[in-house]
Amino acid sequence: MLLEAKTAIVYGASGAIGSAVARAYAREGAEVHLVGRTRAPLEEVARRIRHDGGAAHIAQVDVLDPVAVTQHADAVAASGGIDICFNATANDDVQGTPLLAMPFGEFMRPVTKAVTAHFNIAIAVGRHMTRRGRGVILVMAGGREAIPRLGGSHVAWAALAGLCRQLAAEFGPHGVRVNWLLSPGSPGYDDQDGTGPGTAGEPGTAAAPGTAAAPGTVGLLAGHLPSYDEVANIAAFAASDWARTITASEINFTGGAVVD
Asked: What's this model's pTM, rounded to 2 decimal places?
């Protein structure tokens, strides 16, 4: 197993991506701590993990509260250390409004929340990882496609990429890797189970996760976007020692929607 005897914290663990990643980490041998804003959906994810023989713990934490985030990270570290941090918290962005009609507060909301939450989490877990001389921090940073009416999302994702680079530069000498996962940040990716139509087929959008691209959609070199299970497998690899030389890097799993 890729993550045997590891301890992982998954923030945003009740969401589609966070829950898939948490299950994959548990399947690969990690003891998983599930963090989110609402307890009930976290309990369902934990139930599924335990049913499959994994170990899962639950914590209801406001990631915008640095004291709460630090207290939780300290408690996890005291029980055996923190090896992996995966952050899939939502940014509460406003989409569908052109920038010309968007109030500045709505534009900045996802930027402020993303930077605040990810900074709080990275510092809280980073203190423990750097002391131990090992650890992996992974961030869902969204996409880079030039799609209109995404509000402040692109700025938030760019800010997270910059934050990850800075964290990697400062944490790297202490044995801690930091990477961000480049997801297909299009409206079609919001489909929750990876099987529904989402907004695939509309001009300027991509297909739903795990489905083929429809005529007139953004070009996908791989022909389809990843399913949530495929995203989770990528996250498991990125957190493992198999990826120990990958840091300060963008991990692109957009199916070719974004090409550098």
From this structure: 0.88
For 208, half-sphere exposure in the C-beta direction (CA atoms, 13 angstrom radius) is 12
CA–CA gap between residue 205 and residue 50 (Å, rounded): 37
Least-confidence region, from 47-56, 119-128, 133-142, 207-216: 207-216
CA 93 to chain centre: 15
Reading the block at residue 120, the tokens are 């709080």
Distance CA 38, CA 21 (A): 18
- What mean pLDDT is reported for the chain? 87
Residue 71's domain comprises 7-184+226-249
Instruction: Look up tokens 């301890």; give the residue.
Output: 7
Inter-residue contact 88 to 14 (CB < 8 Å): no
Say if residue 19 is in the same domain as residue 98: yes
CB contact at 8 A, 81 and 126: no
